[in-house]
Structures are given as structure tokens and as C-alpha cells.
Design a protein that fits this description.
This protein is 39% helix and 15% strand. It is built from 25 helices and 17 strands. The strands form three sheets. Strands 7-6-8-9-11-10-15 form a seven-stranded mixed β-sheet, with helices on both faces. Strands 1-2-3-5-4 form a five-stranded parallel β-sheet, with helices on both faces. Helix 12 links the parallel strand 4 and strand 5. Helix 16 runs parallel beside helix 18. The protein is elongated and about 95 Å long.
Amino acid sequence: MLEKIKKPNDIHKIALADFPALADEIRQFLIESVSRTGGHLASNLGVVELTMALHNVLDLPKDKIIWDVGHQAYTHKILTGRKEGFARLRMEGGMSGFPKRKESPCDAFDAGHSSDSISAGLGYVRARDLSGDNYYVVSVIGDGALTGGMAYEALNNAAELKTNFIIILNDNNMSISRNVGGMSSYLSALRTAESYTGMKLSVTKTLKKVPKVGTALVDTVRKTKSSIKQLIIPGMLFENMGLTYLGPVDGHNMRQMMKLFNEAKRVEGPVIVHVLTEKGRGYRPASLHPDRFHGTGPFDIKTGKPLAVKKGLTYTEVFSNAMKDLGRKEKKLVGITAAMPEGTGLKEFGRLFPDRFFDVGIAEEHAVSFAAGLALGGMIPVVAIYSSFLQRSVDQILQDVCMQNLHVIFAIDRAGIVGADGETHHGCFDLSYLTMMPNMTVMAPKNQQELKEMLEFAVKADGPCAIRYPKGHAYQGLEEFQSPVEYGKSEVLFRGTGTAILSVGSMTEICEKVYTELKERGDNPTFVNARFVKPLDTSLLDELAKDHSLFVTVEENVKNGGFGEHVAAYMEACHPECRVLPIAIWNRFIGHGETESLRAEVGLSAPEILGAIEEYEKQ
């Protein structure tokens, strides 16, 4: 069946009787393909039938499907003729693991972050109505994404609509990890309300049998807020917000879904269709461990075990171990995650200290303000969030933490280039927005030992502290030079003259190679581990200005507002005779691919840095 899918809407040519066979083939293809390339597997296996049902009742690309987060759009890509692209999934120059408008007109919205699909869909609907166009807009959002406040802002706004807008709630009881909070409990009640579902169908069938007026009666009941479902499920959150609620429906029964989707298309106003799916369906390792198979590298299909050989501890694991150790010593230490206890390394802290661990759901803004309250109450909160996701809470960091000068620690994982997830996940902006905030201290460790020491330093410090570290293996080099972390002080690894290399965190491993190359060509450079991006170690800059003419700063952050620009501004004001070469990411978005290859592309590999220094010296 899969060979018949060459372009958008080819699914319309396949008989409904063959849909189960097509679903099986898609699942087998996804398992085999992702086992070779890596990618998001569990979420995609769960929405195969849901995606097929949607494509069967819609006309793409005229109609618009907006996928929240977007990592579950693999079947959508297959059904729009991109099956061959899976051979280079998430590889540089290959197909993205997320919807991308530049890839296909069937991708209505570039996705990557959570809880924004209803807002984007509502924008499409308003544009459609203003333009007098005629197409359907469908936003597909998971129950995990409904823990994000932005989704409720959009639902509240959507309630004013008088024209059709379809919201599919893909309910699998998971985000990356198992969901938490009131919405999770509410949806659990709906899932188990078989009495409601059965009675609704029974009443509908009975009313429709009434001669002449049966169908009209059913429509009247549907449009009445105090309808039958109000009697069976108290509250009816979505109906009370002004949305028509349909479901719940089995997310693996395509005929039921298509019937409900067609019914949703007839609603004049916003309608939410509640679909129950199983994350990882069809592949036992993924269904048993959906969090492990949320995002996976290449793996052995028979066992589900990863093929890659592990290279020591990751920075996430180093942070995890340090949090456990500090948790035993410091009883006021608490850990906060936004729906990623395993991804951020806080899972074990939560297991050891359940009363001091808080998973707030996909709600980064809330996580930060919640931490502010904890700090005011005498706790020492550590907020562990990926760099790219921390961007969502800039206002809360500025207003609720920095303005009040509160002792909140930000553990910023995945800082810098992250590889295959691409432009929505690279953490290349945190130094720029964090260093602009008064009272904020910003640190970056050169290796695994320094990460531990910086976390210990932050726990004992005052005011807001941020520690940013990269994805992947933790560097173990240069540990013989380890000196105590002292506020605002850089670490001079090698003292020379002429040229000073100032590296920030993850770039120290690469800059060590640059330093070695410069030494071998006869130079005698100084090599500095910056440690603190804010505050600047101006006393060291003053000292080095006496016998250095060139300062080279290297950071895995955009150039605008980064460490290099701060150094350049200080040197221009105080030591204009010294030249500064900031090496950073130019103000641009970076695609997906292997991390080392992407670093070379943006000028952050050792050969590229050496070349930039040599070129600058010629000027």
C-alpha cells in the first residue's frame, strides 16, 4: 500500500478496507527507518491512524494541519510524498524531523516548541475569514502541550469564533515523560468515562429514529450548553469555555475518527475532538518505554537497545550526580523541571527527594515564577531547562527573579549547537539575553569537574545564577589546572604574550587544540577559561592588555550581545590599542545536522578558528 503514496492526497485513492494494511506498513517503515537514522519514534507510532484519518477527510495543501511541537509529523510527511527523504532524516542537507514550510506546502507552520498550535491555527482561521477563502484549519495538540499556558490563552480567544476551527486533542497521557497536573487528571476522567460515551451514542441513535424531527433534535442537543454530557461529566471544561466537544474517540479506529472529523467540519465555531492514542503503539520497546523512544539515536530493532557506544558521562549526568550529592548536604535545595525530569537529569533527584522535586509540566514561565516564590520562602531552587526552551521565560527571569535579586539557580542544558533537532532546538541565544539582565551571574564550565564546582558555588552564592553547558559527553581534559571557582574570576590555563584566547565553556575543548596549533607554529599565546560571562573579569583584561595586542574570544552563542561583544566594548573603552576578534555564531538560524559539522559551518571548529585568527593577523 505504501508504494501507492507518491504525493499529497494519494491516500484518497486507497480503499478504506486497505487502511489497516497501510497503517501497518507505515509503522514498519518508521521503525526500520528511525532505527538507522535516529529520531522521534514513540510519538509518531502513536498517531499513524490519526494522521491517516485526517488526511483522508482533508484536501492538502489547501486545508491546513498545524502540528503542535511537530515531532509527531513523520506519517504526515510520508502521506505528502516525502518517504524517500527518511533516508537522510535530520542529517545535514536532509529532511527535518519537524514540519518545515520550505520542505512542502503541506507543512502549514514551522514547529519545534510546544503549546503554540492553537494560536497559529486561530491566526489562519481569522486570515481565511478576512480573505473570504474556504478551507479547513486543524490544529493537532497533545495533552502534554495543554499543560502550557499559551494553549489556554488561545482556547479563550478561539471561543469567540463563529466559523469552523478544528482542534484535535491527541491524548496519550504523555509529553516526553508522563504528564502531571490538573489537566492530566481531568483528561484521565474523560478517558475512563465509558458510561458517558456509551450513553451519548445511545441517546443519539434513539433520537435519530424519531420520524422527521430526529436529526434536528440531535443537532439541538449538540448546540445546547446544558446538553446530555453536562449531566454525565460535571464541568465540561471545554464546553464551558465555549468550544464544542466531541469524543473521546479511539485514536486507532480510523472509521470512528473519520466520522467524527467529518462531523467536526460541520460545526460553525471552534470544536475540539478528543482522540485517545497510545504512544509507541506497534513496537513493544517503544510502548513500554515511550520516554526513552521519544527522541532516540540508531537502535537495534530486536532489542530496542541503542547502537552507539557511550563515551563516558554526559554533562546532564554530571549535573544529575552533583544535584544528588548537594541534595544530601543542603536540605533547602529543590529541583524544578518543565516536563523533562529525565532529559534534564533531575529524575534521580526526584526519586531521592520527592518532597523537594517539582515537575510543573510544559510551563517554563510558571517554572521560573514558581522558583521565585520558593526562593522568597527560604528555599534554594534549581530550575533545569534546555537553553532553547528557557527563551520562553525571559520576562519571568527578568521581572520575577532578577528584579527582586532572588537566589534562583538556572541549570541550562543543551546550550550551543545541539545537532539533529535543528534550528528550533539550538541553544545559541542564552548568553545574549541573560547577560543583559541586572543582578544575573552567568557561568559556563570548561569540563565536568568545573560543572560540579560551579553548581556548588551557585548554591552558596546570592542572587540569580545561571550555569550553561552543552549537550553530549562531558569534557574531562584540563582537570590538572583546576582551581577553586571564585566570583567573577577567569582561569588562566597558560600564560603567554601577544595573543590571548578567551574561551567560554564548551569551546574550551576546541580552543585547547587552537592553542596547541599556535604554540607549534612558534607563537606564545595566553589561554584563558573565561568561566564567568557575567561579570567580566576586567582586572584580568587590564593585566593582559599590558603585553597582548590581540584578544580572541570564542563562544557557542550568537555574536550579538554575546561574550565577545562585551569584551570588545570594554577593551575599546579602556584599552583601545588592543584589537578584539570575537568568534561566535553570526546572527542567523542554524539547520540540523551533526554537531561537529555544524560547528565547522559556523566557524567554531579548530581549523576555522585558526583560519580566522591568521586572516585577522594579516589585516
